[in-house]
Inverse folding.
């Protein structure tokens, strides 16, 4: 009984808050959308005042309804309590709907269904019918209290919200700001002709109108509204295209009546069938326009419901038409998800799965295969944006869907579709390989390379130059990833092939004809050159790094922050890494200047790669910034150097909040090692027992990193960690607390000797030369003891 009373108390509070919110504004729903928790908070405040009697009545009616529902188990009651507790603050309530319900003949049922929908409770859930009865009873009781209704005003509801720390801005206020903005500019399209010229308040007003009240910076607002302007144009075209066939329906119906009088039932059926089709098509186009309106406001879930209902409405006309409609509708959700994130990609996949459930492969194999492709593309993009096991699972599902599509899209019967699907399969395999350690990851990357090469047998440069260039560039990326993981001559050869493939693609993707593709290919070329340069010592390595810097700077002439903020941030970060590598190899003031440029570039990239919007990219850029600060700190003496090392340590620790061992083991190991290196440098500068203890902690961090960076799976990274451990042991031998340096020097020599088994002079000359110098220095120190 106590659990029933708990549920009733929460339901009563929610019913009182919802009733106040729906009925408290006689002007017609002027309150802006608030959270479900906000409605509960309003109810809690009002219960202590004018709604005390209404609340008690609501709770009593809810208890009565629950006790009359024997299908409620104890587990159901506990789940109902959690659902109604208002612990879903991100769920939004639509004030216009509540206002509309207030004027409807069945307010209680309409609002109860609305709340259950908001609570994300499916209609087939056992809780749904019981909670529906309970909420209807509570709403009816709250609404019937005449004293409560008489006391309700807009000001009262706003005051109740303020008492709970809620900010309930009014739609009237937003409308006033919009009216003033449109008075100055005329219409939205004119206002967006030059978004950079708009003030920050104007940009925020427009973003709020599109359902995005949380963006704060001007670049983020401009980027968001620029995308919305594109959608808005398509939305206006869609409204204009709504056909005026309703008048023609009257003629069809009159003809059907005439045929009925003549008892020509076949003609009646034909005419009514046409009426049915036209009515369904008109209703679908209206639903599509409403869905576009929902997407403009960021309400992807609402768009999904509208489009699903529109597709289902054709089931009585043609059993395959719902699947065909969903095939087109999923693309709208997919495009929205790509542009704005959120649930669009997941809803696109859900829409496609629903279409496939209604479409056996044999019924329409080409449509079935196309849907498998669409499903796979949505899953790839979801997987690419998701970390850990969830992202890996999505990529695995995408690979399965692409392979299913290839059962229909064979090379013999559908060569172009086969090549396109094979390339998409290669992209998914490549993403899987990048995320997978060791031999399994190498195998996936190898499969990706084979798939790209297979696609190029159809996508020839002569017959399909654009497809050939795009696939060749994708092949270059996979080869570069393989080369980065492979040591010695084999790795160097793969990196060389990657650079050659990029240069070949640039013969088609020229800057004059294809500026964006050109910039993308220039960046990929720069990445391959940078990796080659990092492995190569002396003047040759320096020259390769210089070429990489030039290629990045060239790409940034097209990838501007204003037009391509995410690509700009990515390229700026890559440029910073190349500058850092140059700085490390360059002595004196010139090297310090390059490191300073690298730090500035990383900080610039982080203005776009925020933790909230791009957590994985943010963590990468933060880790790289820490590395550059660490190099600056090593070169700088005194308090200034110590401060830089402190900043590096803080940045590494921040990156580890995202780069966890569970979700990103390889990146976690890299960051842990780099953090240990920065702390090691700090500790070298710290004397006494405290410094010695801190050096020991650095050793523990290196050993933890080696649990992931094994020689079998990551030989080059393993060797780098061995070299760092050698430097640590050398520092421990030189520390002022060390009484016997020999054991530490011998351990250091063992570590650097191990590193040199990977750092061979032919293929990793720069690393080999550094490690060899350290080895010779350690031998000399031991000989001098």
């Amino acid at each position: 009984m106590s659990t029933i009373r708990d549920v009733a108390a929460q339901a009563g509070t929610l019913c009182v808050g919802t009733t106040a919110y729906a009925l408290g504004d006689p002007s017609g729903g002027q309150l802006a959308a608030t959270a479900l928790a906000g409605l509960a908070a309003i109810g809690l405040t009002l219960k202590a005042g004018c709604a005390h009697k209404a609340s008690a009545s609501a709770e009593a009616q809810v208890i009565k309804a629950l006790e009359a529902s024997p299908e409620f188990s104890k587990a159901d009651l506990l789940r109902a309590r959690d659902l109604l507790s208002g612990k879903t603050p991100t769920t939004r309530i639509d004030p216009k709907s509540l206002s509309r319900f207030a004027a409807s003949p069945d307010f209680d049922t309409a609002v109860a269904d609305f709340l259950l929908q908001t609570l994300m409770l499916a209609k087939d859930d056992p809780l749904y019918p019981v909670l529906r009865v309970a909420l209807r009873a509570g709403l009816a009781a709250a609404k019937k209290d005449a004293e409560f209704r008489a006391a309700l005003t807009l000001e009262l509801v706003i005051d109740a919200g303020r008492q709970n720390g809620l900010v309930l801005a009014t739609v009237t206020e937003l409308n006033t700001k919009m009216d003033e903005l449109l008075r100055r500019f005329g219409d939205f399209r004119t206002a967006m002709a030059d978004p950079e010229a708009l003030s920050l308040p104007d940009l925020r007003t427009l973003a709020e109108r599109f359902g995005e009240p949380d963006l704060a910076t001007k670049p983020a607002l401009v980027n968001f509204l620029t995308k919305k302007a594109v959608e808005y144009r398509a939305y206006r075209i869609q409204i204009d295209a709504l056909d005026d066939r309703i008048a023609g329906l009257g003629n069809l119906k009159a003809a059907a009546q005439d045929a009925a009088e003549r008892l020509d039932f076949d003609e009646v059926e034909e005419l009514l069938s046409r009426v049915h089709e036209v009515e369904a098509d008109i209703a679908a186009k209206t639903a599509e326009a409403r869905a576009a309106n929902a997407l403009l406001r960021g309400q992807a879930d609402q768009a999904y419901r509208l489009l699903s209902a529109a597709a289902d409405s054709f089931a009585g006309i043609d059993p395959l038409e719902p699947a065909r409609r969903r095939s087109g509708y999923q693309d709208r959700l997919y495009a929205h998800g790509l542009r704005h994130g959120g649930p669009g990609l997941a809803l696109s996949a859900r829409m496609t799965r629903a279409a496939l459930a209604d479409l056996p492969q044999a019924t329409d194999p080409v449509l079935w295969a196309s849907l498998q492709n669409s499903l796979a593309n949505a899953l790839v993009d979801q997987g690419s944006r998701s970390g850990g096991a969830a992202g890996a699972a999505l990529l695995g599902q995408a690979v399965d869907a692409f392979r299913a599509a290839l059962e229909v899209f064979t090379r013999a019967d559908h060569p172009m579709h086969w090549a396109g699907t094979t390339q998409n399969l290669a992209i998914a395999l490549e993403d899987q390989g990048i995320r997978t350690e060791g031999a399994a990851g190498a195998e996936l990357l190898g499969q990706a390379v084979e798939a790209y090469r297979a696609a190029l047998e159809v996508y020839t440069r002569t017959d399909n130059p654009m497809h050939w260039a795009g696939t060749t560039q994708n092949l270059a990326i996979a080869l570069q990833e393989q080369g980065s993981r492979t040591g010695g001559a084999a790795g160097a050869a793969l990196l060389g092939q990657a650079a050659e493939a990029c240069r070949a693609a640039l013969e088609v993707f020229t800057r004059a004809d294809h500026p964006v593709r050109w910039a993308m290919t220039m960046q990929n070329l720069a990445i391959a050159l940078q990796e080659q340069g990092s492995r190569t010592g002396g003047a040759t390595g320096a020259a390769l790094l210089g070429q990489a810097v030039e290629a990045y700077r060239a790409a940034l002439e097209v990838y501007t922050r204003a037009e391509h903020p995410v690509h700009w941030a990515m390229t700026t970060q890559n440029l910073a890494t190349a500058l850092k590598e140059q700085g490390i190899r360059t002595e004196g003031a010139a090297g310090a200047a390059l490191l300073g440029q690298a730090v500035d570039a990383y900080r610039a990239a982080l203005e776009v790669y925020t933790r909230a919007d791009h957590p994985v990219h943010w963590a990468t850029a933060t880790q790289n910034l820490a590395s550059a600060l660490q190099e600056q700190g090593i070169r700088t003496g005194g308090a200034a150097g110590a401060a830089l090392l402190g900043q590096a340590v803080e940045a590494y620790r921040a990156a580890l909040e995202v780069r966890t061992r569970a979700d990103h083991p390889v990146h976690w190991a890299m960051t842990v090692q780099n953090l240990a290196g920065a702390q090691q440098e700090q500790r070298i500068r710290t004397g006494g027992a405290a410094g010695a203890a801190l050096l020991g902690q650095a050793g523990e961090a290196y050993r933890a990193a080696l649990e992931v960076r094994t020689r079998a799976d990551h030989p080059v990274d393993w060797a780098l960690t061995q070299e760092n451990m050698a430097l640590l042991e050398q520092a421990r031998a030189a520390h002022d607390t060390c009484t016997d340096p020999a054991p530490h020097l011998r351990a250091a020599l063992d570590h650097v000797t191990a590193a040199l088994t990977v750092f061979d002079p032919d293929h990793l000359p720069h690393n080999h030369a550094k490690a060899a110098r350290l080895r010779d220095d350690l031998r000399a120190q031991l000989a001098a003891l």
